[in-house]
Design brief:
2 domains; Tetracycline Repressor, domain 2; 305 residues; mainly alpha; 14 helices
């Protein structure tokens, strides 16, 4: 064991001694975000052509989950100052003072390194490389570089959350194929309207924290217009898995129906200009992704219906 790993382990242990509860370490992992990320990663494993041993598949999904949690922990360590300024984040372990910053950082780094190592040894190096890229992109590109500097933070940074299905795909195939890329692009295009809907009714939080989210910089009217634009662009993109042969025509019809419902909500966000419409769209955006990727797994298991 290296000096760094020893000091990291000691830091985590010190966090427990200083009053950080197990629940605080769980909170660092952002479990609600993790559930959606793990689900899309599992969909990539199931939808990928070919077969892999169930234990290998389980290792791949577990590594995706751990890496996601690690990224969340490092993100909370870096953003503890702005988290303290926002109502929805001020009770997190670091701004609330229940955990030392170095403990959170050590926890995240240990999990990140461990997840990549296990993926490389237990699955394949291609999936491990993508996993490392996803962690690095979320931490250094989105968290450190983009989030505090540009309203395009969600547009570019959305790539970080789009990696799980292509990682799951590579865990089975050992390669980056059009099917995995189509799943990546689907989530990439879904991310802006999803987060901007949230930002519409939480823009006061972002403004107080000095985070240049689109409603803060460009105003709520322009944000609504951008939500509609990206949701309209998402509609044809969402059919990408069918276009490249990774899903059946039945799934494409299902995805189109869900896309039309999503588009209708985006139109309502523009027309009604109310907080209620933004909340409805945000809630449906989560359901939308679960429906498409859940349907993709059913489609794959059922052999294209």
């Amino acid at each position: 064991m290296t000096d760094r790993s020893i000091s990291g382990t000691v830091g985590v242990a010190a966090g427990l001694q200083d009053g950080a509860a197990v629940a605080d370490f769980v909170a660092l992992l952002k479990p609600r975000v993790m559930s959606l990320v793990v689900f899309t990663g599992l969909a990539g494993v199931v939808a990928a052509p070919g077969a892999t041993h169930p234990v290998v598949a389980a290792i791949a999904v577990l590594c995706i989950a751990v890496a996601t949690g690690a990224s969340g922990a490092i993100n909370m360590w870096y953003e503890r100052d702005i988290d303290a300024l926002m109502d929805r984040t001020r009770d997190r372990p670091l701004p609330a003072g229940r955990m030392r910053p170095d403990t959170a950082l050590a926890f995240g780094v240990i999990l990140a390194g461990g997840s990549v190592m296990v993926m490389a040894l237990g699955v394949n190096w291609q999936a491990a490389a993508l996993l490392a890229l996803a962690i690095g992109f979320y931490v250094f590109v989105y968290t450190v570089w983009l989030k505090r500097r540009t309203p395009q933070n969600i547009v570019i940074g959305g790539a970080a959350g789009a990696f799980p299905p292509i990682i799951g795909w590579a865990a089975v195939t050992g390669s980056i194929d059009p099917g995995g890329i189509a799943l990546f692009v689907l989530i990439f295009m879904w991310t802006p309207p999803h987060f901007w809907a949230l930002a519409l009714y939480k823009h006061g939080d972002y403004e107080n924290a000095g985070v240049p989210m689109l409603p803060v910089v460009a105003g709520v009217r322009e944000t609504r217009r951008q939500i509609l634009l990206y949701t309209a662009l998402l509609f044809p993109v969402s059919l990408g898995p069918w276009f490249v042969g990774a899903a059946s025509g039945a799934w494409a019809l299902f995805a189109a129906a869900a896309g039309l419902a999503f588009l209708a909500l985006a139109i309502d966000v523009v027309r009604s200009a109310s907080e209620r419409s933004a909340r409805r769209m945000f809630a449906f955006s989560v359901l939308y992704l679960f429906l498409l990727f859940g349907g993709l797994m059913i489609d794959s298991v059922a052999g294209g219906w």
